[in-house]
Design a protein that fits this description.
Layout (H helix, E strand, L loop, with lengths): L3 H25 L8 H6 L8 H9 L3 H7 L2 H22 L3 H15 L1 H20 L3
């Protein structure tokens, strides 16, 4: 039976694998296909619409374009690098830095409501911006 810590590592590892696979395929053969169910159903973008294109622009060193498409692309890229780095260190050195970082972030967001609310407001503002610019 998997512990909560092992489930976190397994789920995060699988998500990272498929995320990297998607980015690799999209990088090799860019498409205009949207996978977002919100945009497909409503015609309006969700807050994270454009994240793949933003990361694609980052990989091509088009930083301003990446920010313009969706600033969450920078956040997602930084998180992916951090997560993969911590998980690799944990795997190599048999540590639990990623798990401890995850727990710290979780506890911080639960105890500091102002921070959680601020992040939600930023996400909503990004969503409004995505809609305004017709993403």
């Amino acid at each position: 039976m998997l512990t909560a810590k092992n489930k976190l590592y397994l789920i995060t590892g699988v998500v990272c694998f498929f995320g990297l696979l998607w980015l690799f395929l999209e990088y090799q053969h860019p498409t205009e296909t949207t996978l977002c169910p919100i945009k497909r159903v409503t015609g309006y973008p969700c807050p994270s619409c454009g994240t793949t294109r933003s990361i694609h622009s980052l990989l091509h060193r088009h930083f301003l374009e990446a920010i313009w498409i969706n600033p969450l692309g920078l956040v997602a890229a930084a998180m992916a690098v951090g997560i993969l780095l911590l998980m690799s260190i944990d795997l190599i050195f048999r540590k639990d830095y990623f798990y401890r970082a995850y727990r710290w972030i979780e506890q911080t967001l639960q105890s500091k409501r102002w921070l959680s609310i601020s992040l939600i407001i930023l996400l909503l503002l990004n969503w409004i911006w995505n809609i305004k610019k017709g993403l």
